[in-house]
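Risk register update: the risk of archive-format incompatibility is retired. Evidence:
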Amino acid sequence: MSQSIFDYRPYWAKRFGTAPVLPMSRAEMDDLGWDSCDIILVTGDAYVDHPSFGMALIGRLLEAQGFRVGIIAQPDWQSAEDFQRLGKPNLFFGVTAGNMDSMVNRYTADRRLRHDDAYTPDAEGGKRPDRSTLVYSQRCREAYKDVPLIIGGIEASLRRIAHYDYWSDKVRRSLLVDSKADLLFFGNAERAIVAFAHRLAAGEAVEDIRDLRGTAFIAKTYPQDWVLLDSSELDLPGKLEALPNPYAEQDQSDSTADTQPVQFQSRRARELRANTVVRLPSYEVVRKDPVLYAHTSRVLHLESNPGNARALLQMHGIRDVWLNPPPIPLSTEELDQVYELPYTRQPHPAYQGKKIPAYEMIRFSINIMRGCFGGCSFCSITEHEGRIIQNRSEDSIIREIETIRDNVPGFTGIISDLGGPTANMYHLHCKSPSIESACRRLSCVFPGICENLNTNHYPLIKLYRRARALTGVKRIFIASGLRYDLAVESPEYVKELVTHHVGGYLKIAPEHTEAAPLDKMMKPGISTYYRFKQLFDKYSQEAGKEQYLIPYFIAAHPGTSDKDMLNLALWLKQNGLRADQVQAFLPSPMALATTMYHSGFNPLKKVRRQNEHTVFSAKGLKQRRLHKAFLRYHDANNWPLLRETLQKMGRADLIGNGKKHLIPRFQPAGTGGTPEGQRRAPTQSKAKGKVFKTQHQRPSGSKPKRHKKK
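Archived output:
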């Protein structure tokens, strides 16, 4: 059992008490009576003292341990001067790009520069550099080269080994190597960073701290009493006939994913698992060999359960990057204390009332849990937060609602979201701790819900009822993503949700209608959507409410053909739906879908050189635009491209002016393409259909806006 993060003896500086806000200037330090900071955190986000902002959460947690913590938010990175504004930290610098990967934050899926930044005052763009963690680390070293430096947050977490980088279109080294940091913290890092701070404060050298779970470091060698196991012994990318199969085969569905627990055959490896390190193919190898890149991705993800994961080792040149096993999840008691630290829940006063869009979005929202066992291949939540759900207690959540009601300016009685990475995984878990600690499935719900998964939604129903009964609370909305494949297992939950917590529209994410892309996404079939819609419509009608579902879809996801997108467009038209603001698949670092995109191989299956499990991905700009155009079949600017494509596909029968046609034959003046003749296409006002907005791959730590009825 891990030591509680709140059981450490407080550092001597605890005597200074709690700061109103963590200081961002020497003047604020002087007001607090500090001559120096023990720890300085550097972040690419504006400093908002709210638990949804990672640096605020880590900062307040370290403050609770007795340390004096300063914040340098969105510094001028052109020189080291701004990194010296709080002086030299006594213990270490902690660097993060912020709540989002800096490249995802700054560029669209088409690699176009964004001109705004939701995590910056007044949404001003350009306040953080590309690859922020790398740049900030360099400046910290220039400012005080002898100060220990650690990196963390989602950018570091998803770039902890050699990874495909979409923006440079190449495999890059581990961010630990390029940043020259002493340690890289991945996943939810509270347990590791608290232990690290206390050990440094006790006089331990940073180069001697090598045993913290959830950290990576540069290793000169591995301990002599450890077993070194080559990853190819676990998942050999070659012929299997002459060798024992390292996996226990079980009956599987037609899905393209391995979903059964994997049992390794080596008795020695099982007995010495705690002292076993798995060597992955080196950076120099995986950057050139797509098969070994896919193999590495598969092994990394199979070694992600804190209950059975082993350490990993990957050579970069003459140096090894050593990854310790993932962190042990926080207990409910620990998570409650983390979220009940003395946050002001407001931006730092230095911003003088400027609007920070990301804050406005989560200002009246509450995080009730962490983690996601959905395992969607395109999503970074599971890779960062893990598959084991960490729950807050009902009492703690209620206390936070009361804090918002009583203390947060502008509260009108509306809680905008009661959720987390998902809306309805609260208190869902494996029925057996022993099975959970041994399981190697990549998803608990794909291709079907695991028989060992508890799907009882009653704790969440009970929380909803208690929360909305609070004095001063008028409405509670659920804005987090809903796993409707889990929701249909509890009709009572769907009724509760639809009757009391939907504001006209409810967002859900079927992502596609066709089996091939859905299998690559690790998402349920469209039939599950129909089951949920039936319950949604039934309970909306019983409640006397006119409410609609807003389905989200992804264009150009690996495994998606032009025909798949055509079938999705036809489904949208048949159901009277029109998508607005659609987005194509964005290959985020380390995701399984990104591996498919880069390598052409499917890491959800065993990776072999002679392998039928290859994956097509739309990569050219024209084809990616085509897949987005199918989602917006109703937009006249897309008709020329769609006409050309339909003719090439032999589906010219879908071009015409009748109800059975997908797009008109003639092009209106003033839209994309040259008008063909004098006839005009039907105006959009004649096409009866619901208009909705979709946006995919929402960043970890942010909440999508609620859609209002039009």
